[in-house]
């Protein structure tokens, strides 16, 4: 099942894809729907068809956005680090999220990099959960790109300031439920910049998979329906190249996972957001 928040007739609504048609669900967006409705009950709530509907940011108001860095063996190697014993985590605010086709606005002069990622959406409250409980609590999966300002990231040992720029983490276009996608068996995570493939990794090589991460995070902070966990990026980031490569004004970043979809976002290096 593919779920989304869509724009239709001047407003947004949660929706489910029925063949090639969007049908309404009884909430303004997926963030709201997931707080009251487990995904396995969604099929009983399907409403009217929404002709011309367009997917937008699927989860506009998560309480928590938690990210895992250095979680693919090839990316760990290219960054000159050893395999971790525990996940390397950092947080974002909901303000960092933006839609699957939105432009990304950053001021000029930053060293901007791409990071294609599988994101996990929480579907049930988790506190100190074991792996099996965490696995059952997954509402679904979506695509993200953890666009990073590397020069700010490297200012200190803490990554937060390079990762949390407003409206720079595209997400979507849909959330695919676990019955239709199995990252443990392996799905490819792909990033293209101006049509040139820069990243292609497979989730079966994750050091810590989705259930591992939800269980670990829930040990120290409660996770709630609609929260999002980014699982890390495979090798091929610009800062790992020799010499390093940065995104430029106007570059098109396409981030895709077969079975979910593709984000298409253009970077705008400007002091204006208009």
Biggest sheet statistics: 11 strands, mixed
What is the element string, with H for helices and E for strands? EEEHEEHEEEEEHEEHHEEEHEEE
Whole-Å distance between the termini?
35 Å
Beta-strand segment tally = 18
What are the segments in which pLDDT stays under 50 over at least 5 consecutive residues?
A: none
Mean pLDDT: 96
Query: Which descriptor suits the 3D outline?
Result: globular
> Which range does the strand content fall in?
25-35%
- What would you report as the Rg, rounded to the nearest angstrom? 18 Å
Q: Strand pairing plus helix content: what structural class?
A: alpha+beta
Number of helices: 6
User: Roughly how much helix do the residues carry, as a percent range?
Assistant: 10-25%
Task: Describe what you observe in this structure.
By secondary structure, the protein is of the alpha+beta class. The chain is 14% helix and 34% strand. It contains six helices and 18 strands. It has helices at 30-36, 73-78, 131-136, 150-153, 160-163, 210-220; strands at 2-8, 11-18, 21-24, 54-55, 65-69, 88-92, 97-98, 104-106, 112-113, 116-122, 138-145, 148-149, 169-176, 188-193, 196-202, 228-230, 252-257, 261-269. The strands form three sheets. Strands 1, 2, 3, 4, 5, 6, 7, 10, 11, 13 and 16 form an eleven-stranded mixed sheet that branches. Strands 8-18-17-14-15 form a five-stranded mixed sheet, with no helix packed on it. It has a two-stranded antiparallel sheet with strand order 9-12. A hairpin with a 2-residue loop joins β1 (2-8) and β2. It starts with a strand and ends in a 5-residue tail after the last strand.
């Amino acid at each position: 099942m593919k779920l989304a928040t869509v724009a239709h007739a001047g407003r947004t609504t949660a929706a489910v894809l029925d063949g090639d048609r969007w049908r309404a669900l009884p909430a303004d967006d997926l963030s709201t729907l997931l707080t009251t409705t487990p995904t396995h009950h969604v099929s009983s709530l399907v409403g009217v068809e929404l002709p011309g509907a367009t997917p937008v940011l699927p989860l506009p108001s998560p309480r928590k956005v938690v990210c895992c860095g250095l979680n693919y063996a090839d990316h760990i190697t290219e960054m000159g680090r050893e395999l971790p014993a525990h996940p390397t985590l950092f947080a974002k605010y909901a303000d960092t999220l933006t839609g699957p086709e939105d432009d990304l606005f950053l001021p000029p002069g930053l060293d901007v990099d791409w990071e294609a990622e599988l994101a996990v959406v929480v579907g049930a409250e988790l506190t100190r959960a074991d792996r099996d409980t965490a696995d059952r609590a997954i509402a679904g999966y979506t695509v993200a790109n953890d666009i990073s300002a590397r020069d700010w990231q490297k200012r200190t040992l803490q990554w937060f300031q390079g990762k949390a720029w407003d409206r720079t983490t595209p997400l979507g276009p849909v959330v695919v439920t676990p019955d239709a996608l199995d990252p443990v068996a392996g799905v490819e995570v792909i990033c293209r910049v101006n049509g040139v493939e820069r990243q292609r990794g497979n989730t079966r090589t994750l050091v810590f998979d989705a259930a591992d991460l939800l269980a670990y995070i829930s040990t120290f902070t409660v996770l709630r329906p609609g929260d999002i966990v980014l699982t890390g990026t495979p090798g091929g980031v610009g800062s790992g190249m020799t010499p390093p490569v940065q995104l430029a004004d106007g570059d098109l970043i396409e981030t895709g996972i077969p079975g979910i979809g593709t984000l298409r976002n253009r970077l705008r290096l400007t002091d204006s957001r208009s």
